[in-house]
Inverse folding.
């Protein structure tokens, strides 16, 4: 039987690695877009190297995207690539717009040029809500982004909806709230905390320096959130969905639970540095994913404390074994 084919941009990132694993598990032939770099950035997918066909292309280069789709001929295209770190978007606003906003149009144009029947998933974000007028946020909540990243994602969302309405493409926008994992980038607050706690526990660091401890987010486990992406592309009609746990916690909660897991008092180690505060903060996000639960049958299973425990545990394991930062570690190993 011929395998279904899927192409993932951003396969070397956190979500790309989990989505690739998930699709391979469902019998897909997976193609992954990687951009040219002087050093290899494929730690997260190293364990999948034999099962994925990597294609060199870049969101900045239209021709390379067209050629990637021509080579892979996928049924499903998952556009996960982006400049995804919010603070960098203030330092590199134009580049963030090029990758995270216009990159989406380049992908959609590539799809239109090669095969309009391909199904398209756009990685939209709860950062689009920014300073929202209502709580919790769902698919109808107006956007009020608070960073160049959030603004770029609003563009990516609207252009996806626009191409669906203009050209009849099967294009979906998944509005995902924060999702974390042991493969999360170390600059994001969850992993910065769990790695910091692991280092302190092992005597490799003495303090953990953070910014705003009062910000609240709706955090879930990335390994589960990628399943919702796939489910969106299996529906009869394309649509947009919020994917969230429906429970918000503060950064301070995350800190407390992570330190409790290794039986340490967080107050002895955590320092707040004002320079880590953002020019405009997103104070409180909490999602209402009842549409995804109802129509996709999706629901999260890993709780917030379980997620943090998993991340601290694996950070301790990696540090003890001297493993690379993003190496996939089987849960049973750690
Ligand atoms: P991530 O770990 O930062 O991964 C980003 C990926 O994009 C990497 O594979 C990166 O490749 C690739 N990339 C960046 N610029 C590119 C370019 N010009 N051409 C080709 N590839 C490029 O992000 P993530 O956490 O997996 O998130 C996946 C997507 O979901 C992103 O679009 C993010 O904005 C969005 N999102 C994430 C969350 C979350 O909580 N994680 C929530 C909502 C939405 P390199 O390895 O070469 O850098
Ligand atoms: N990164 C970071 N580092 N954040 C800190 C720190 C710190 O030292 N101290 C406090 N924070 C606060 C930030 O101010 C923010 O309010 C919150 O922790 C979460 O920050 P991040 O983990 O960097 O994530 P984010 O919410 O800005 O963005 C992530 O989630 C979005 C979905 O809402 C990213 O994955 C985006 O790509 C994604 O779209």
């Amino acid at each position: 039987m011929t395998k279904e084919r899927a192409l993932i941009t951003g396969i070397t990132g956190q979500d790309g690695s989990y989505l690739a694993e998930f699709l391979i598990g469902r019998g897909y032939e997976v193609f992954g877009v990687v951009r040219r770099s002087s050093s290899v950035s494929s730690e997260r997918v190293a364990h999948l190297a034999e099962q994925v066909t990597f294609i060199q292309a870049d969101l900045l280069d239209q021709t390379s995207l067209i050629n990637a789709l021509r080579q892979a001929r996928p049924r499903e295209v998952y556009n996960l690539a982006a400049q995804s770190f919010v603070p960098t978007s203030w330092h590199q606003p134009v580049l963030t717009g090029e990758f995270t906003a216009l990159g989406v149009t380049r992908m959609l144009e590539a799809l239109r040029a090669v095969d309009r029947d391909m199904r398209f998933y756009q990685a939209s974000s709860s950062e689009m809500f920014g300073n929202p007028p209502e709580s919790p946020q769902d698919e109808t909540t107006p956007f009020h982004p608070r960073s160049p990243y959030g603004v770029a994602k609003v563009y990516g969302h609207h252009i996806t909806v626009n191409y669906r309405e203009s050209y009849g493409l099967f294009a979906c926008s998944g509005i995902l709230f924060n999702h974390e994992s042991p493969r999360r980038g170390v600059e994001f607050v969850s992993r910065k905390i769990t790695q910091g706690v692991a280092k302190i526990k092992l005597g490799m660091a003495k303090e953990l320096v953070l910014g705003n401890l009062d910000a609240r987010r709706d955090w879930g486990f990335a390994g589960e959130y990628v399943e919702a992406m796939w489910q969106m592309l299996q529906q009869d009609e394309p649509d947009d969905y919020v994917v969230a746990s429906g429970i918000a916690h503060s950064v301070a909660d995350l800190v407390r639970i992570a330190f409790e897991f290794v039986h340490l008092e967080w107050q002895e180690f955590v320092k707040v540095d004002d320079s880590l505060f953002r020019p405009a903060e997103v104070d409180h996000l909490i999602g209402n994913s009842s549409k995804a639960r109802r129509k996709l049958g999706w629901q999260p299973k890993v709780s917030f404390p379980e997620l943090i425990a998993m991340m601290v545990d694996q950070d301790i394991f990696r540090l003890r074994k001297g493993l690379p930062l993003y190496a996939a570690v089987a849960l049973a190993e750690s």
User: Anything to note?
Assistant: The chain is about 40% helix and 15% strand. The chain has a mean pLDDT of 97.
